[in-house]
Give the backbone structure.
Amino acid sequence: MSTPDSDSLLAEQLLRLTRRVHRIQKRHLQRSGLGVTPAQARLLRTLAHCESPPRMADLAERLEVVPRAVTTLVDGLEASGKVRRMPDPTNRRVIRIELTEDGRRALRELRGARVSAAEEILDPLTDLERQVLGGLLDALMGGSLDPDPEPERAKGRTC
């Protein structure tokens, strides 16, 4: 049975772990030399999961940020050649965002940096501890790390 004190301690441990994960991932991102911020990396990963190039508003909704934040992220990624803006073929007022080949290459390198960061974080754990941790994280995340995007596609969204 949990107590308010034990729940408070768990909450603090989770927050500290989250901050540590972010620090380590950021360090691995910097070592990769891609010049991509964590927020830009998240946008690239989101684009990779879209079945067709999304609108800026779709990206903002998916990332749970304001559209202006997406504009700034896309500006930086476009300047480095990782994404491109393209007009919507059916509505010239709409701009869609797509990954370039350089963006796909960057995603492969980013995955490597994330795996390296995960290895560093999980290094002290035995195989059994990793298995238990995976089960606990699944329970906390509602059983899935990557929710099935199909329901969103059914609503006519591209992302």
Observations:
- Confidence is low (pLDDT under 50) at residues 147-156.
- The first strand starts at residue 83 and ends at 87.
- Residues 4-32 form the longest helix (29 residues).
- The two ends are 41 Å apart (CA to CA).
